[in-house]
Amino acid sequence: MIKVTVPATSANMGSGYDSIGIALDLYNVISMEEADGIEISDVSGADIPTDETNLIYQCAKKVYDICGKPLRGLKIVEDCAIPQTRGLGSSSACTVAGILGANALLGGPLGQQNVIDLAASIEGHPDNSTPAILGGFCVALLEYGKVWSVRVPMNGKVDFITFIPDFELSTEKARGVLPEKVAHHDAVFNLSRAALLAGSLTTGKLENISVAVGDCLHQPYRFGLIPDGREVVHAARAMGALGAFISGAGPSIIAVVDAQDKTYLSRAEMYCAQNFPHWKPICLHCDETGARVEQV
Ligand code: HSE
Question: Which residues of the chain have pLDDT under 50?
Answer without folding.
Answer: none
